[in-house]
TrEMBL record:
This is Amidohydrolase. It comes from Rothia aeria F0474. One of its GO terms (cellular component) is cytoplasm. PANTHER family: PEPTIDASE M20, PEPTIDASE M20 DIMERISATION DOMAIN-CONTAINING PROTEIN. InterPro entries: Amidohydrolase, Bact_exopeptidase_dim_dom, Peptidase_M20, Peptidase_M20/M20A_hydrolases, Peptidase_M20_dimer. It comes from the Bacteria. Gene3D superfamilies: 3.30.70.360, Zn peptidases. Residues 235-325 form the Peptidase M20 dimerisation domain. GO terms for biological process: folic acid catabolic process. NCBIfam families: amidohydrolases. Residues 1-16 have a biased composition (Polar residues).
Length: 470
């Protein structure tokens, strides 16, 4: 029997009603951003107020020794860069990368401890002057990341970060061995796993890895050389709505629909976006909406990520999110079970400009000229767990070019760039920049005082772990 009540009219199939292909997003906005970036590059300039210590006091010779040490380890560093790239490992699984990096440190005659901070793929090594006195001398931490992304591999170029951090640490060790009074102080080299998908640095900080450090530095690959770029704080929220199940046809009035609450919450989050500052982000999915359509769903849940440019605005956004989630529960007559940060949050990066100026000067010495903050639109901002460290102590997280301009992070194209000749050069140049900044910080008392003064003026140390309790 033909079920079509109008047999003379053809019935369209679902496939016929569906567009032949997914509409591809237009490139107009990216084109506008590119033009905006080009304009900013043409007018950008650094206002350098931090001046290096007197080059006549043998300091230029020390920098020459650092450059020579990096050149002497060029083959080793490039080989490690490619080895880690060819063996990508995701968060907390970076056993190969950790082993290769710690072996390189051990082979240089330096003790290295792993695991540390309760993390199997974290490590720590220490280099200090013979006269080191914690009451008089400073400590700086140099960081290496080395985790990869699922499916993409090193689409964020952490293999470059690993090689640069290692190169800086070993170059300073070589320099100190050659000139025992090159600096007075201590350098901690930390292997920090799980920047992607988690917040390894926050876990290490909670375990005390940075307690004795006075500053922390690292470098991240990018599609342009820039001394500072916006990095957003990020929090994760999971909400489960609990209602009452009932037969969806005969007794729907006896139920309380958890999916209704999830749908209302999802719509409420979408409506909230209009009132958000331009730096804020909300990403959400309904990851459980019930099991079968003939039952009123008893449970439903959302998984939400939020981001913001500043720590106070991230906290304010958190409160507004909770209001929306509770409001949806009230409308649907269900309970809301809200949990934040099943893995640690990441905080916005507070870049220390005084320390960052020394990075710029060091990079200019080797032919690079990093652009200042604001050159790249904050619209392109992502997140990093280095933010958690930068709110505990002064730090910098500059970016160094390895890919053609406009190449997006977390893409196959960026992963390919992370094993290119440009990536090799960036790892070596990054190692030099980090080593010189570390040397500056340990030897220049006026610089160190200015670094700390800027940090205190920006708000001083933040109790990151308990920041969102209020």
């Amino acid at each position: 029997m033909n079920s079509n009540p109008h047999p003379n009219l053809s019935t369209q199939s679902a496939a016929q009603k569906t567009p032949e292909k997914t509409a591809h997003p237009g490139s107009e906005f990216l084109t506008a951003l590119t033009a905006e970036t080009e304009h900013r590059k043409a007018t950008a300039h650094h206002s350098i107020t931090s001046r290096p210590i007197d080059e006549d006091c043998g300091y230029a010779h020390l920098k020459h020794d650092i450059a020579k040490a990096i050149a002497g380890r060029k083959e080793q560093l490039i080989q490690l860069l490619h080895a880690i790239h060819q063996n990508p490992e995701t968060a907390y699984q970076e056993r190969y990368a950790c082993a290769e990096l710690t072996r390189a440190v051990h082979d240089a005659g330096i003790d290295v401890e792993t695991p540390v901070c309760g993390l199997d793929t974290a490590f720590a090594a220490t280099l200090q002057s013979a006269n080191y006195d914690p009451r008089k001398h400073r400590t700086i931490a140099i960081l290496s990341e080395y985790d990869a992304l699922p499916g993409i591999g090193h689409g964020c170029g952490h293999n470059v970060i690993a090689a640069a951090g290692l190169g800086a640490f070993l170059a300073l060790a070589d320099t100190l061995q050659k000139t025992p009074d090159a600096f007075s102080g201590r350098i901690i080299y930390l292997g920090t796993p799980a920047e992607e998908s988690d917040a390894g640095k926050e876990n290490m900080a909670r375990a005390g890895a940075f307690d004795t450090a006075d500053a922390a530095i690292m470098v991240h690959p990018y599609f342009i050389d820039v001394a500072d770029q916006a990095w957003l704080g990020r929090r994760e929220c999971r909400v489960t709505y609990c209602g009452i199940s009932a037969h969806a046809s005969s007794h729907p009035f006896m139920g309380r629909n958890a999916l209704d609450a999830a749908a209302l919450a999802y719509q409420g989050l979408g409506l909230l976006r209009q009132q958000l500052p331009v730096s804020d982000r909300i990403h959400a999915i309904i990851d459980n909406g019930g099991q079968t359509p003939n039952l009123i769903p008893q449970t439903a849940s959302l998984h939400i990520n939020i981001r913001s440019r500043y720590a106070p605005t991230l906290r304010a956004l958190s409160h507004r999110i909770e209001d929306v989630l509770h409001g949806a529960a009230l409308m649907a007559g269900v309970q809301a079970d809200i949990h934040w940060d099943s893995s640690p949050m990441t905080m916005p990066v507070r870049s220390n400009q005084t320390l960052g100026q020394r990075w710029v000067l060091a990079q200019r010495e080797i032919g690079r000229n990093p652009y200042p903050a604001g050159t790249i639109s904050d619209t392109l901002a992502a997140s990093t767990d280095f933010g958690n460290i930068s709110l505990r102590l002064p730090g910098i997280h500059p970016l160094i070019q390895i890919a053609p301009e406009g190449t997006g992070l977390h893409t196959a194209e960026f992963a390919a760039a992370a094993q290119s000749p440009r990536a090799e050069e960036a790892a070596l140049d990054g190692a030099y920049g980090l080593a010189v900044v570390a040397l500056d910080f340990l030897t220049d008392d006026a610089l160190a005082a200015d670094v700390q003064a800027e940090f205190e003026k920006a708000g001083g140390a933040v109790q990151v772990q308990t920041y969102f309790d209020s």
